[in-house]
Amino acid sequence: MRWAVILCLGAALASCGDELTDAERAEQDRELAERVREANDQAPPLIEVVPEPLLYPDMEANDLFGLACSYAPGTSMGARVIAREADAFVKIDGDVIRFAADPGSRELPANSRSLYNGREYSLRLQIDGKRTDDTNGSAFYEGTVWLRDRWDRVIYQGAGTVSCGA
């Protein structure tokens, strides 16, 4: 659509019978370039997403077992995020999406990271509160998860229980 606007403007300029001076042509080119920049800088409407629980078949298909932190919103026990040393996983619209760990980000328990990047989204994790341990060797914390789109807008934020361990 942007190209259609540019072509229409170009056709309108070409159809003018009046000759333009170099200064006038340069000014029109500058204005046209500015309109194109504004159109390209426009972000699409914000679309919020809600991560789905990562179920056992998802975990099995993506080999999500071992040392990791699992984030579950509120009082739910269904993990929405599984974060490991090198990657993290979230399920959106039925697809399990893999994020790569940002090696320069802060290290969290179970060698997980505070920032993970994907093709369409980025994932930020924060662990708050006190640690409580269970008899199986897992540690539980309170945590927050932010999912951002490619324009760095928050499209999901959730807080809940974080379980870290093997």
Query: Major sheet, described briefly?
Result: 8 strands, antiparallel, barrel
- Portion in helices: 10-25%
Strand order of the largest sheet: 1-2-3-4-5-6-7-8
| Radius of gyration, taken over Cα atoms and rounded to an integer in Å | 24 Å
Tell me the overall shape.
Answer: elongated
The H/E string reads HHHEEEEEEEE
**pLDDT average, as an integer?**
86
Describe the structure in your own words.
With 166 residues, this protein is α+β, with helices and mostly antiparallel strands. The chain has two domains: 2-41; 56-165. It has three helices and eight strands, in the order H-H-H-E-E-E-E-E-E-E-E. Strands 1-2-3-4-5-6-7-8 form an eight-stranded antiparallel barrel. The chain is elongated and about 85 Å long. The protein starts with a helix and ends with a strand.
List the helices and strands and how they pair.
Elements: H1 2-15, H2 22-41, H3 56-61, E1 68-73, E2 81-83, E3 87-92, E4 95-101, E5 115-117, E6 122-133, E7 139-148, E8 154-165
Antiparallel strand pairs: 1-2, 1-8, 2-3, 3-4, 4-5, 5-6, 6-7, 7-8
